[in-house]
Amino acid sequence: KVCDGTVLKNLSDLRRALRKMPEDKFRYHFSRERNDFFAWVRDMYQDKELASQIHNAKSSSEIVAAISRRLNKARKKRDLTEIDQLSQSSKQEILQQLGELR
């Protein structure tokens, strides 16, 4: 929960909140003494890589960029997993359709 009362349920919520958060509110959650965003990602997601990027960030826009990269990476991984789960005939059909588009 951020200081305006918004409850964060996932990384997309955090990214959305950071994009609209005033600088003074951001600094309340993110300073040398306090880094709520780092702690939340570390504790809730156990994502050490993203938590480290947040810890080392210097601005909300750097945190937003790090979260966006992480979400894109997860999306690509999910897409590849879905492709791997397709039957061989479905894969061949998709490849054939792609070839026809060229």
Number of strands: 0
**Fraction of residues in helices?**
over 70%
Question: Could you tell me how far the N terminus lies from the C terminus, measured between alpha carbons in angstroms?
Answer: 49 Å
Mean pLDDT: 86
Largest sheet: none
Instruction: Specify the structural class.
Output: mainly alpha
| Uncertain spans | none
Helix-strand pattern? HHHHHH
The value of Rg in angstroms is 19 Å
Give the overall shape, derived from the CA principal axes: elongated
- The number of helical elements comes to 6
- Name the beta content range: under 5%
Structure summary:
With 102 residues, the protein is an all-alpha fold. It has 6 helices and no strands.
Spell out the blueprint of helices and strands.
Blueprint: H1 11-20, H2 23-29, H3 36-45, H4 48-56, H5 60-85, H6 88-101
Helix pairs in contact: 1-5, 3-4
Keywords:
elongated; about 100 residues; mainly alpha; single chain
Tell me what you see in this structure.
Helix 1 packs antiparallel against helix 5 and helix 3 runs antiparallel to helix 4. The relative contact order is 0.10. With 102 residues, this protein is an all-alpha fold. The mean pLDDT is 86. The protein has 6 helices and no strands.
